[in-house]
Design a protein that fits this description.
Blueprint: E1 2-6, H1 11-23, E2 28-33, E3 45-49, H2 55-62, E4 70-73, H3 94-119, E5 126-130, H4 146-169, E6 174-179, E7 182-183, E8 200-201, H5 203-216, E9 225-227
Parallel strand pairs: 1-2, 1-4, 2-3, 4-5, 5-6, 6-9, 7-8
Helix pairs in contact: 1-5, 2-3, 3-4
Length: 235
């Protein structure tokens, strides 16, 4: 079994990486990081420095594999040091919107493009993508967060569209979108004060929930959107 974790340096990504090492001790594990390679990581993991919003780098990464069973994309973007999610239209910035699309949406499209031929060689290839419930159009009742919502809604559309193509070209493979819930990581840190009691999860808890969903997913689940609880979410 060969597993590639995109963003294995982040809070959720690293927790998934460590859990995979425990649960699948014979698996060949690969993980990516964007800038700084994580310290004190297991020797059994092969690390790749990749900006997955750069097409040439994703192409180069794919050329290092002849076979892959699971790809778990954990990269995500919510805020930078200059701007956070917009509370109103007055806060919208074209540059911030573009950064959300580039970092939240584009990587999955590029990974799908270059890794589909490789996943086809697996008897049960799987691609799991970390999305967010705020990307659900039907579930949007509060408004705001324009760029993040739009980038995740676009991501969800990519997952759905890839699943339709895979029905013809990659029939044994599964692609799903996953909502991890609010996780105690740097990404959610500025927004944790408003999280209801019991709804802020540790990365380890989230990793166990998401891996359980990935394990039981099959091609009939492809193109669907699941919460960490296993509930199917509306687009």
């Amino acid at each position: 079994m060969k597993i590639l974790i995109i963003g294995g340096h982040g809070g959720i990504g690293n927790a998934i990486l460590l859990l995979c090492q425990q649960r699948y001790p014979s698996a060949e594990l690969h993980a990516t990081y964007r800038q700084t390679r994580p310290q004190s990581q297991p020797d059994e993991v092969t690390w790749h420095q990749v900006d997955v919003s750069d097409e040439s780098q994703v192409h180069k990464l794919s050329e290092q594999f002849t076979h892959i069973d699971w790809i778990i994309n954990c990269v995500g973007f919510l805020h930078n040091k200059h701007q956070g999610p917009e509370k109103s239209l007055a806060s919208v910035s074209s540059d911030f919107f573009s950064e959300n699309i580039r970092r939240n949406t584009l990587p999955t499209l590029l990974l799908s493009k270059y890794f589909t031929p490789i996943l086809k060689r697996s008897e049960a290839g799987k691609m799991a993508i970390l999305s967010a419930k705020v990307g659900s159009i039907k579930d949007n009742r509060l408004g705001g967060w324009y760029s993040y919502r739009a980038s995740k809604a676009a991501l969800n559309m990519i997952v759905k569209t890839v699943s339709i193509e895979w029905q013809r070209t990659c029939r044994k493979a599964t692609i799903i979108a996953l909502h991890p819930g609010t996780t105690d990581t740097a990404l959610s840190k500025p927004f944790q004060a408003n999280v209801p009691t019991g709804k802020l999860f540790t990365p380890g808890d989230v990793a166990r929930d998401l891996i359980a969903i990935i394990e039981r997913s099959t091609p009939e689940h492809s193109g669907r959107f699941y919460s960490y609880s296993g509930e199917e979410l509306p687009w």
